Amino acid sequence: MATQPFFFMKLANGRLRFAITDSAGTVLTAETSTSRSFAANTWHHVGVSWNIKPGSNQTVLQIFLDGDLETTNTTTPYRSTSSGNITNLSSIYIGDNRTSGITPNTGTPNGANGTIDEIYIYARDISATQAEADMNIVRTTCTSLDHFHIVHSGQVVGCNPANVVVEAHDAAHALFNLAGTTMQIATSSSHGTWSGISTINPVNDTGNGTANYTFSNESRITLGLTNGFIETLNINLASGQSGPGQITETSGAGVICVPSDYTFGSTCDSNLTFLEAGFLFDVLNHISEVSQTVTVSAVRKSNNSLTCTPAFASVNRNINFTCNYNNPATGSMPVRVGNKALNSGNSTTAACDSSGQNVNLSFNASGVATTTVQYADVGNMTLTAKITTGGLNMTGSDNFITAPAIFAFSGISTAPIKAGSNFGITVTAQNSANTTTPNFGKETTAEGASLSFNKCQPSGSNSVNGSFTGSLGSFTNGVATASTLKWTEVGNGDITATLTSGSYLGSDITASNNTGNSGTVCNGAGNVGRFIPDHFDTIVTQGCNAGNFSYSAQPFNVQVKAMNALGNITINYDGTANTSPNFSKTTTLSDANAIATGSLLNASVPLASFTQGIANTTPNYTFTSALTSPATIKLRAADTDAVSSASGIIEGSTLIRSGRIRIQNAYGSELLELPMPMVAQYWNNGSWALNSNDICTTGVSLAFTDPNLADGLVPSELCVLDTGNPGSSGLGCTASGIASKRFKVPPSNGNFNLTLRAPGAGNTGSIDVTATVPAWLKYNWTGAGNTNPSARATFGTYRAPIIYLREVF
């Protein structure tokens, strides 16, 4: 600042110092008593204020830190004596020692290395309360002040101050917090005195119906206007210089009257009438159809002051009551006062009208009577009392809001409901007597209800809550229906409906209800559902998966997945001890192709097999006759709720082949290795064929038996060319055979590659070779039942089938 500078800085020792020089050259210095450390990357709110007044210790300096008034070096706030003032205010520099050479002693230029934001400058000194309010301002969106909104009752008896609510709105008519903004206030009649009823700062009344107020992180304040004149006036607000940029009650979006800017009833910027006499009563915002006891005072302004005196006392009077709809603007039910419906027919099923009803009230010596008010619907209503007989002309009115008591449920889709599929529910807004409030949903900005879902069952570590989606449609005559709700899981639950706005028409009254037993969510089993899977998927791992087939009677794996309609596993379809109760069901497998040449065995899947929506089982399909050509079966799963894979996306299948392993007799020289054909076969079109797709069969081993103990060959003189002893055959030679002659388990394209080592000179005779094979590859070789395959190897009985042999060298 020019002429005489002031400084606010952080000292090297962590204290804050505020120094100011008055016009007489006196330096006034306030310094915090506590040295503080300020962590990097941490925001702090700081502020100073001063009020220079002549006289001993009349000048006050304050330092604020994080919304608190700091203790200063001598007194708190710091007090000193000044004989001057601050003049010639010009530029204020924030975050820079702009003027060199005038830094106070012990001051440190550029002593605070950081970022400064949200600067507020007031034309007066502030309090710690206002500093804290400024600190707490949160700007969630980048909006600005667009217009002011005035709310009052439209009329008031002149002996009472009128409550005038002023709101700061942005262009979307949302409340906007102001800090440091000064608003000018004036009445059109230049009458009245202003005061603060609910404000942080005092209201500065400047006379003749004018005043000003400086906001301190406030979006709504309540002012009081006292006026001894019996008149109708309008209230005018302004902030900023006159012209296009000035903010008033009709600037910006405020130029168009919308419900968010209603002053009284359904009008904006309404006039305020001060009456000589009238009725005073206050109907509180309440739940629809709950009877309200209301005190009605007949008052008039005293002849000699602004105090209220009874307009009449100790007398019965017929007072005419009428009701009007504000929001919604129409209705079908009347307000009832003293059990009288306020329409010409005194009908509880007819709307309010201009006739209303006369209600006899008994006023006591203080001019006070008591009656009851009820309204069976919802909305913002105006209740007016008046008397125009016997030389009296008095009126009074009050606005009130009635909100729904609960939301009731009906039309819940019948169980079972498929997980992930649409289901429906109907929600009705009701009053305290459990009857429909038809005006709910007809508000200018329609009120509504939001739905949420709580999973009740199953519980346990294997259970999940799932995902709930969907919403209610608009309310019509107090009723709304949802038809596209979805829950992704299995089990049951309860739905809760809650007033979407959380405050019906801004009344701070909400409404909620749920489908739980006795009004408690998940008080036992939920009343929405049972939910079941939408379908099963069956995934088959074939007996010989790499060869893309299964043998008849060979177990293969089927994985059954319980799925919702969205294609996800229903985790709660579980039969283990980790959920309670279990919602899985016994499931049965069948052949969807119904080939009818055999039977699917081990086809039942117990409910306990399901873990978090998945079960694995190992059925087999057995042909009635081994001489059956290949056929493909499709695995279909269905549980006792008729949930089936028939409607699913995946139904696994497998090709079934009737198979066997065959070993053929062989003969040769005792001096040469002897190949013995050993292959996997399957029946196809009337004959056995090599099953070249078999690259999977395991569990095969060989054994030797001696059919003729008298010949020159014993089992110990033979072995199988293998990887060593015992090898995969169980009879492998000690020395590993060459790779091309080794016994192969699993087979190579159906061939086990069986070769016996030459027994050597003099070792002639026969040995029987028997293969132990899986049960599904045994065969009825002799007509006496299925047995393992065997064949005879003979050495030396026949000449070798070699005429000429020559080594190439």
TrEMBL record:
Entry-linked Pfam families: DUF6701, Laminin_G_3
SUPFAM superfamilies: Concanavalin A-like lectins/glucanases
Location of the Laminin G domain: 1-142
Secretion signal, residue range per the UniProt entry: none
Protein name as catalogued: Laminin G domain-containing protein
Protein's organism: Methylotenera oryzisoli
